[in-house]
C-alpha cells in the first residue's frame, strides 16, 4: 500500500499541490513561533525578554496551532471525498477498507514529511526575522541570538505529521466504509451534516461567545490577557461557524434561492440547483472565506481599538501590537492560500460535470456565468458569517475600552478586508473554471 500511495501521488498532481501547500505553510508557521521557545532557553537571557518570547510562542503559537490544524483537516477531507469512485474501484478488486485507509494515510504521511522538511529552512529565516522585529521595537534585549532547536523542530514536524495522518484517517474511514456498488453509482454525494459535527460546531461557537462574555467580566481589568481572550472569541467563533458551514449553506440557499434565480436567470437557476445538490462542496469553500474574513477583521479591529484607546504605549501594549500584526500577516496569508487551494481543487474536480452540461447544450460562457454567480453567493455568505464571528471579539473589547459596543474606527479597514476576500473568491472561481472547461467536452467527462 505504501508503494501504491507513492504511485498515486504521481498521478494526482492537483491534490498533491493543494495538500502540500497547506502542510508546508502550516509547518512553517508552527516552527517559526515554536523556535521562540528554543531562543527563550538560551542561558543568561533577561527576564523581560524571556517573558516576551514565551508570550509570542504561547499566545500566537496556540492561535496558529488551532487554525492550522483545522485548515489542514478541511483540505485533506475535501481531497479524500473527491476520490470515492477511485476507492470503489480498489474495493471492487479486493482491497479491504483497512487497506484503503492505509493507502490514503500513506499518501498524507509522505506529503506531510516532504512539506515539513522543506519548511525547516524558511522557518529558520522566519524565526530570525521575528526575533529581529522584537528586538528593533525594544521588546527583547539586543544581541539575543535566534536558536532553532529540537523543540521548534519537534513541535512543527510532530504537529504537522500528526494533523495530516489524523485528518486522513478520519476522512477516509467514512468513505472507505461505503460499498463499492454504492460509491460507483453515486453521482452526487450530499448527505446531511452529522450530529457529531453539529455538536462540535455548536460547542466551538459557544466557546467563542463565552470568551466574549469573559472579556467584559472576568478579564475587563487585565492588560495582556484582555486582548488574548477577545482574540480567542473571534477565532473560536470563526471556526465554529466554519464547522457549521453545511447548515449555513442550506439556510442561505433556502432564503436567497428565489431572489438569485429571479435576478440572474438561467445562470442563477443552475447555481441554486447545483448548490442544493452539492451543499457539502459549497460548504468547503465557505469554510475558507469565513476563516479569512472573521480572523482578519477581528484581529485588525482589536488592535485598532487598542491603538486609539491608549495614549502612551507601554511596553506590554507594544508587544501585543507587534504580535498581532505578525500573526495577522502570517495567518491571513495562510487563510488566503487555503481559500485558493480549496476553491481551485473543488472546481477543477467538476470537469466532468461541466463537460456534461456542455454536451447538453450549455456554452462555455454559460458555464462560466453559472460558477461566477456561485462565487458571488459564496463570497457574500462567507463575508457575512465571517463578519458575525468577528463581532464576537470586537463588540465586547470595544465596550471594555471605549464604553460602546460599536467601535469608532474607520470602516475603510473592513472594506479592504471584504474586497480582498471577494477578489480571492471570485478570482479563484473564474480562473479554475476557465481551466476546467478548456478542451473538448467529451474528453472532460472521462477526466
UniProtKB/TrEMBL annotation:
<feature type="transmembrane region" description="Helical">
    <location>
        <begin position="376"/>
        <end position="400"/>
    </location>
</feature>
<feature type="transmembrane region" description="Helical">
    <location>
        <begin position="12"/>
        <end position="35"/>
    </location>
</feature>
<feature type="domain" description="ABC3 transporter permease C-terminal">
    <location>
        <begin position="64"/>
        <end position="173"/>
    </location>
</feature>
<feature type="transmembrane region" description="Helical">
    <location>
        <begin position="101"/>
        <end position="125"/>
    </location>
</feature>
<feature type="transmembrane region" description="Helical">
    <location>
        <begin position="198"/>
        <end position="219"/>
    </location>
</feature>
<feature type="transmembrane region" description="Helical">
    <location>
        <begin position="55"/>
        <end position="80"/>
    </location>
</feature>
<keyword id="KW-0812">Transmembrane</keyword>
<feature type="transmembrane region" description="Helical">
    <location>
        <begin position="325"/>
        <end position="348"/>
    </location>
</feature>
<feature type="transmembrane region" description="Helical">
    <location>
        <begin position="412"/>
        <end position="433"/>
    </location>
</feature>
<keyword id="KW-0472">Membrane</keyword>
<keyword id="KW-1003">Cell membrane</keyword>
<protein>
    <submittedName>
        <fullName>ABC transport system permease protein</fullName>
    </submittedName>
</protein>
<dbReference type="InterPro" id="IPR050250">
    <property type="entry name" value="Macrolide_Exporter_MacB"/>
</dbReference>
<feature type="domain" description="ABC3 transporter permease C-terminal">
    <location>
        <begin position="326"/>
        <end position="439"/>
    </location>
</feature>
<dbReference type="InterPro" id="IPR003838">
    <property type="entry name" value="ABC3_permease_C"/>
</dbReference>
<feature type="transmembrane region" description="Helical">
    <location>
        <begin position="285"/>
        <end position="305"/>
    </location>
</feature>
<feature type="transmembrane region" description="Helical">
    <location>
        <begin position="231"/>
        <end position="253"/>
    </location>
</feature>
<comment type="similarity">
    <text>Belongs to the ABC-4 integral membrane protein family.</text>
</comment>
<feature type="transmembrane region" description="Helical">
    <location>
        <begin position="148"/>
        <end position="171"/>
    </location>
</feature>
<dbReference type="Pfam" id="PF02687">
    <property type="entry name" value="FtsX"/>
</dbReference>
<keyword id="KW-1133">Transmembrane helix</keyword>
